Amino acid sequence: MTTIKEIAKLAEVSRGTVDRVLNNREGVSEETAEKVRKIAEELGYKPNKVGMALAAQKNKFLIGIIVFSRKNAFFDQVIEGVNEKADELAFFGCSVIIKRVAYNTAAQLSAIWECLNEGAQGIIITPYNDTLICERLNALINDGIPVITLNSDAENVNRIAYVGSDYYNSGRAAGALMQLMTHGETNIGVILGDRNILCHSRREAGFRSKLSSDKRFKIVDVQENFDDDLKSYEIVSKMLKEHPEINGLYFTAAGVFGGCKAIQELGEDRDIKVITYDAVPTTLDMLDKGIVTATICQEPKWQGSKSLELMYNYLSGNEDEEINSYYYSELNIKIKEAR
C-alpha cells in the first residue's frame, strides 16, 4: 500500500505538504499540488480513513461555537457552514456545541460558561467588544483554552486567529458603491447594528473614510437597530421623517428588511439609494424589488467552515505550519441587474 511518506519522497516535499494537497487544504502552490496529485494517482494511493479516524478518536474534541441571535439570518448561513464542516470532522472525533445569544455582555459570558461546563476544549466566538468579554477570553487562553474570533474580532484578545471579512475595507467598498450609485448632493443615514460589535463600528469608519474627501456626501444621522427588524423599521421611519433630505442609507449589519419596509411606505416619490450587507433571502427580495441598490456578501458559510477547520487542526495538532492571525473572506457585490 502506497504511503504519504513515499509520495513525499518522490515529490521531494514534506509529508505535511502531501497531506495538505490530498485533503484539499490551503498553503500549497498549484504547481506543487499538481505534482503531488499526479504521483499519488500513478501510485494508486488511497487514504486509510479508518486508520486516520482511529488515530483521531484517541482524543475527541468538543468545540464551543458562540454567535449572535436568530434575529440575524446571516448567522444561519454561518452555522450552516459550521455544521457541514462538523459533519465532515465527526469521523475524526470532533463535535460542536452551538450557542446563539443576544447582543449583551451577560448573555455572552453565560454562553462561554455553558460551553466550558459542557466540556468544550476550544471556543469560536463572534465577540461583543466589551472589556469583560475580552478579559474572560484572555483568561481562557491563559488557562489553555484556545479562542478563534468569527465574523467580528475583539480588541486586545490573544486569540489564535480571526476569520471573517476585512470590515474596515468592506466599509470603504460600501462608500465606493454609494459614490457610484448616486449623483449630486447625497445626504446619508447610517444604521448600525451595535457600536459594541467591532465589525459594525469599523465598517462605519471605513465608509466615512472613503467619503470624507468627497464634498457631495454628508452623513446626517446615525442610529443603532441591534439587528432587529422591528427596531430598524422604527428608527428608519423616524429618520426619514426628521430628515426629508436623506437620499442614501447605509446598513452596516442586519435589520435591512425592517428598514426597507419603512422606505416602501414612503412610496415611489423619494429615490433613496440603499447599500447593505449579505445575501439573506429578505435582502435579496428587497434587491429584486429595487429597494436595496447593492449588497455586499462576505462568504458566511466559508467563515463558519474555516473557523471550525482551524480550531480542529489546532487542537488535534494537524497543522504543520503556523496559523495566520487573519483569514479574510472574499467580498462579492450583488446588484439587481447582475443577479
Low-confidence stretches: none
Beta-strand fraction estimate: 15-25%
The outline comes out as globular
The CATH topology of the largest domain is given as: Rossmann fold
The count of helical stretches stands at 13
What is the count of structural domains? Answer: 3
Strand arrangement within the widest β-sheet reads 2-1-3-4-5-11
| CATH architectural category of the largest domain | 3-Layer(aba) Sandwich
Question: How many angstroms separate the termini?
Answer: 49 Å
Strand count, sense and barrel status of the largest sheet are:
6 strands, parallel
CATH hierarchy class name of the largest domain: Alpha Beta
The succession of helices and strands, N to C, reads: HHHHEHEHEHEEHEHEHEHEHEHEE
Q: How many E-type strands?
A: 12
CA gyration radius, whole angstroms: 23 Å
Helix amount, in percent? 40-55%
Structural class: alpha/beta
Mean pLDDT: 89
Give the name of the CATH superfamily of the largest domain: Response regulator
